[in-house]
Design a protein that fits this description.
globular; alpha/beta; 201 residues; seven-stranded mixed β-sheet
Length: 201
């Protein structure tokens, strides 16, 4: 993309996210209009998850967790910047598997089969570099799943930012694009890009 002024990421704070979750701003994520997107992400999880499990970066209130089989929940870790979201997610299980953390600073404590960035890469500067950091915590056959919302208004700066992030991921030379899906919800007029990435050998 030729425009050097394209923003690289959206700045946000824990306080902002907590306020938004308290006001139910993100409750629509559990609506049927989001279900197809979650289903594609979950389909990739089912294909690749093994004993080392799932790291969900930007887990929110645990919507993806709700879709997992019990055996998959046993090997799941969810991280989100919002302590308010983590409180809600943590109420779903007695296990301490949900943690508050900044996607730009969090360091995994183990390796995973699947690392998910479900509408969270928008908040990451230098996307390829950050994905490379996280890929060090993948098992040898591990994969990264990314979902990015494409804004309806093509003049919106966030639209250009997402298009740029996709170009970065696909052309940085660090990852094989194992699969790529463009999903359009006709009822809601919403579009997402879902990538399945594997670190190059």
């Amino acid at each position: 993309m030729g425009n050097a002024k394209i923003q690289d990421y959206i700045e946000s704070s824990q306080q902002q996210w907590d306020e938004e979750y308290r006001s139910n701003m993100w409750s629509y994520l559990s609506d049927i209009t989001e279900y197809a997107r979650y289903s594609i992400v979950y389909g990739y999880i089912r294909k690749f998850v093994a004993d080392e499990g799932i790291l969900d970066m930007g887990c929110g209130t645990g919507i993806l967790y709700d879709m997992l089989l019990d055996s998959e929940k046993d090997v799941y870790t969810g991280v989100d910047l919002s302590e308010e979201a983590i409180k809600i997610a943590s109420s779903k299980t007695s296990k301490r598997i949900f943690h508050s953390g900044d996607i730009n600073q969090y360091v995994p404590t183990k390796r995973y089969d699947v690392i998910i960035f479900n509408e969270s890469l928008q908040y990451v500067p230098n996307t390829p570099s950050k994905l490379l950091e996280y890929s060090r915590y993948l098992t040898p056959d591990g994969v990264i799943i990314s979902s990015l919302y494409s804004h309806k208004n093509t003049l919106d700066p966030d639209y250009a930012m997402v298009e740029y992030k996709i170009e970065e991921m696909e052309q940085c030379g660090l990852f094989d694009v194992v699969d790529k899906v463009s999903l359009f919800n006709h009822n809601a007029g919403l579009k997402w890009y879902i990538h399945l990435l594997k670190k190059k050998s």
